[in-house]
Design brief:
globular; alpha/beta; 2 domains; 2-enoyl-CoA Hydratase, Chain A, domain 1; 6-stranded parallel sheet
Length: about 575
């Protein structure tokens, strides 16, 4: 009996200790969350500079992560900021009397050219308040230099380097790898240029894909050179000559060809900034990082608002997760905004290469219904293509950056066949009993499509493409024939799309907000971002499983993780897809 009592006591002790540790952990994390949230933003000190370094992860919209600044695996693996906060904080600094200038400390920037254009425009707007912008780098990547060229003065370390050689784009092809694995990717598509399937069925670009890639990267390059030409006062042909002949091979070359103003060391830069601030060389510079800056643009004290609804990531059926556009979730947000009497207009901020055609249709319907009640504008980010364009088409007006990648009006179905992999390489066999001729359609992983089955799926793809074209034609007030002529899955830049009538204006989110307010007849209004951040403690822990999995995956596969994720994403797709190529890399 004493033995049983000891066993029972031990069990109770373990349970009580476990509960104590669990609630102690909850309390500890709660304290960390509160302290981190309290310390996450600061007011700029008097006579200070805003420090902008962009060598961390930049996403479309900042998500709540109070543990991000802590040196913890999974949660603290790197600093992240949303493009929305970068732009709003630079805008706030423009009217903040405590901030006298911006110090750009740049080396590399990991975002697309459309996002770079938005940041660059914000820097130019900041200078209009008679405030200075200086840029300094030990090394400038092309994207970093593109931003730096907007500064009053551009400096480079005497032993540093500046990359200026033109733009390149690459696509990873995996057909040979899939062949070795014994996986046959069966493709049904509409669109001569619909190249989303090419990485899985070819080992290099098709002629049509090479044509469109060449077209859009040259369009981006033209904008890139034009902006630098204007702010550095160097003729565009001369910039082309510098890049084409790789004339900038060291720091002295960068000065010779006027891409930078002078070569100085960091201590000399600090003296320069102190002079701009009017402080003694022996005193420290007051600076605040854009990551910590709490500046906000002044909002009108009114109830009327323009809602900015963010839609970024792959378009998926259902709710989706952070970094995805769930058809059901985004539709629900649109319904809420449509029924909210305080919301007088909506700006849908789209940054997506597409995904599920059905989810895109569901979202399109809610945009169409909302437009009948209040103005709806679209602001396009780096991508608003295929399904991303589908959900944009019904808006009153579409705003895009010159380098936005959009269009890609086309549809495909991708059905993997694992017969060779399972039967011949793994020795796995699948048998099946059906009640009808087509009852096993796309249910067996080891049976290739018959000609009749392929015809059925092709009809579905054709019907989806017809619907897609009609949505675009109705929204853009053009004929279906015109949509088809600029569609066929072809990707266009924002400047090209403007000429083709696919977008209405070149502009950013701020431009779209102003247009929504004007159409709504508002003179005074405030701007609110949606979906609203969930600051509850449970919401922070709810994503732990996915974060742990992503962290472990990244630790294991490193630089190869994206290629593996692309294949995994393909194999998990169901239904007809409206998607652009998975991995468009533009350097």
């Amino acid at each position: 009996m004493n033995f049983l009592k000891q066993i029972l006591a031990t069990i109770i002790g373990v349970v009580v200790s476990g509960l104590f540790l669990f609630f102690g952990f909850i309390f500890m994390i709660g304290v960390i969350v509160k302290q981190s949230s309290d310390d996450s933003s600061k007011i700029a000190p008097a006579n200070s500079v805003l420090l902008v370094t962009l060598d961390y992860s930049i996403v479309e919209k900042s998500e709540l992560n109070p543990l991000g600044d802590l040196d913890l695996p999974i949660y603290g693996s790197g600093k992240t900021i949303g493009l929305n906060d970068i732009l709003s904080r630079i805008e706030a600094a423009k009217t903040d009397n405590n901030i006298k200038g911006i110090y750009l400390n740049l080396s590399s920037v990991g975002i697309g050219y459309a996002s770079l254009e938005a940041i660059r425009d914000a820097l130019i707007s900041f200078k209009e308040a008679n405030k200075f912008v200086v840029a300094y780098g030990d090394i400038y990547s092309q994207k970093a230099y593109y931003l730096a060229s907007a500064a009053d003065r551009v400096y480079l370390n005497p032993e540093g380097s500046l990359d200026f050689r033109g733009i390149s784009s690459s696509v990873v092809f995996m057909k040979e790898a899939l062949d070795k694995l014994g996986i046959d990717m069966q493709v049904i598509k509409v669109g001569t240029y619909k190249s989303a399937v090419e990485p899985f069925i070819l080992n290099s670009m098709s002629d049509a894909n090479r044509e469109q890639v060449s077209s859009y990267i040259n369009s981006i390059y033209n904008s890139f050179l034009a902006d630098i030409s204007q702010d550095r006062n160097i003729a565009t042909p001369e910039l082309r000559n510098i890049a084409d002949n790789y004339l900038v091979q060291n720091a002295e070359d960068a000065v010779k060809y006027k891409l930078v103003d002078s070569l100085i060391y960091k201590d000399e830069l600090l003296i320069n900034i102190k002079g701009r601030l009017g402080i003694d060389e022996n005193k420290d510079i007051s600076a605040i990082s854009i990551l910590k800056y709490a500046g906000k643009t002044k909002q009108e004290d009114v109830s009327d608002q323009i809602a900015v609804l963010y839609a970024y990531g792959d378009i998926v059926d259902g709710e989706g997760t952070v970094g995805q556009i769930g058809g059901d979730k985004l539709s629900r947000e649109l319904r809420k905004l449509r029924n909210d009497k305080d919301v007088k207009g909506v700006v849908l901020r789209v940054n997506s290469g597409g995904g599920s055609a059905l989810a895109s249709e569901i979202i399109w319907r809610e945009v169409e219904l909302t437009k009948k009640v209040k103005p709806v504008m679209v602001s396009m980010g780096d991508y608003a293509a295929s399904g991303g364009y589908y959900i944009s088409a019904a808006a009153d007006s579409i705003f895009a950056e010159e380098s936005t990648l959009t269009g890609s009006i086309g549809v495909f179905g991708l059905i993997p066949n694992f017969k060779n992999l399972l039967n011949n390489k793994l020795g796995v066999h699948v048998d099946q009993v059906n009640t009808g001729k087509f009852s096993g359609l796309m249910t067996s992983p080891t049976e290739p499509l018959t000609a009749e089955e392929r015809a059925i799926i092709q009809l579905q793809v054709n019907n989806t493409y017809s619907t897609f074209m009609k949505r675009v034609a109705d929204g853009r007030h053009v004929t279906v024939a015109h949509v088809d002529s600029v569609g066929q899955g072809r990707v266009w830049t924002g400047s090209q799309a403007l000429e083709l009538g696919l977008v209405d204006k070149i502009g950013n989110t701020k431009s779209a907000i102003q247009a929504a307010a004007s159409k709504a007849g508002l003179k005074s209004y405030k701007v609110a971002e949606y979906p609203a951040k969930d600051e509850s403690f449970l919401s922070i822990l709810s994503g732990s499983k996915d974060q742990i999995r992503a962290w472990l995956f990244a630790e294991e596969f490193g630089d190869f993780k994206q290629y593996i994720l692309d294949v995994k994403k393909t194999l998990q797709q169901s239904g007809v897809q409206a998607r652009m190529p998975y991995s468009i890399e533009i350097y």
